[in-house]
Amino acid sequence: MQDPEWAEALDVNLLQGELSTPLPDGGCGYAARKTGSASNSDHTYRSVNVFYFRLGEEGRITEEQIEEWGKNAGGVLHEEVDDTTDPPTSRVWDNFLDLPQSISGWSGGELSWVDGENAQMFFELEDGTRAIPEYTQLATARIKLPLDSELVATIVAQGANTTPGAVPEPTQALSKGLSATFSNSFSITDEAGYTGTVEFSGKLQPWTSDVTDAPPGQFEALSKASTQGVYTNTTPERRSKLPGMRVWALYPVKSAGCTGGSGISVEGDDWASSSYCILSLGGTSDTDLEPGAVHTPEKRTADLKLGPFDENGDALAVLNMPSSIYVAFGGSGQGSTNVDWTGDKGCLVHTQNGAQWLVVMDGWPEVLCN
Fold it and tell me: If you write DSSP's letter for every residue of 21-71 in order, what string do you get?
């Protein structure tokens, strides 16, 4: 669509897992080839542009919907200040939002939308013509986000080698250099009859090697994980304390992922005969809720570090291939053999620290429950 010397196509579906706020459906992605440098590190970035053509036509997003997405994502109307006047004057744009750094991890993101008369600001070529005029002469929106250059190159390469719109299997994402996403929703009940619903989601970034603090010949593995929960108290007319939730990645026992990790059983077995161990990615605390109340705790981000490992070993490859990811809850304490809360999905398993109820994340392999 754009000058191939300026930009290259990017699969928006592969981009979604790298952002804290998913983009609206129906966008077309292009990554600028030119790189920029971060002001506070040696990292470089590339601008990713996601266009939404023919706004408001049947089946397509409208201007009102794209603006609502931007504001829900934390965007604020763009303001320009003219310092050449006395006193300085300012103009607030009603079709231009500055997006927060939290979306991509980089500052400088923006959302703008224009009618057909002004769409050339996005698409006018050097000779004055428009690329694909049947699209670019109509109302259009653009989300522009800076992203790490290496990540952009990975997304572009993966998109070129997969069916357009396809997303890698969750267990394969990390090994391909992409973030592994996870989510699920389920109902919970305790022994006294209190009830609730839980939605849980997050992502795990690829593990990378860092030798800064490791002895010669060894490295430490670094990653980041983010988790987000939404709780609803469905107990009629009663306050309730819904249980805290923890997200666990599972790795085979005695593998690199088990450095300091607790063993976990499959359903019906004792933890001492564990085939897997736990790596915690984060979670939430117990939540007191009024009848019918909904609580969305602040998203939590955890910096993960494991090792040191042998530089000639396969630890990094193992860490980037977790067996599965689960959400755990309901434990009643050290050495317990039962749980206080159960779910309409999942099963009871045993760990070194007592019984837990586990629910596998959607799309991830079920390796614990029969």
Answer: SPPPTT-EEEEEEEEEE-SSSS-EEEEEEEEE-STTSTTS--HHHHHHHHH
User: What is the β-pairing status of strands 324-329 and 354-360?
Assistant: antiparallel
The predicted-structure confidence for 297-317, as pLDDT tens digits, reads as follows 888 889 999 989 999 999 999
Tell me, yes or no, whether 122 and 230 share the same domain: no
Number of domains in the chain: 2
* Domain, as residue range, for 182: 170-360
Looking at 160, 179, 208, which one is the last position of a domain? 160
The answer for residues whose C-beta is within 8 angstroms of residue 110's C-beta and 6 or more apart is 78, 96, 97, 98, 99, 143, 144
Query: Cα 179 from chain centroid?
Result: 7
Cβ(149)–Cβ(46) below 8 Å = yes
Q: Rounded to two decimals, what is the model's pTM?
A: 0.75
C-beta of residue 228 within 8 angstroms of C-beta of residue 185: no
Give the chain's end-to-end CA distance (angstroms, integer): 50
Alpha carbon distance 5, 15 (integer Å): 21
> Residues 184-220: pLDDT tens digits?
999 999 988 999 999 989 899 999 999 999 999 999 9
Is the distance from CB of 101 to CB of 95 less than 8 angstroms?
no
Domain presence at residue 213: yes
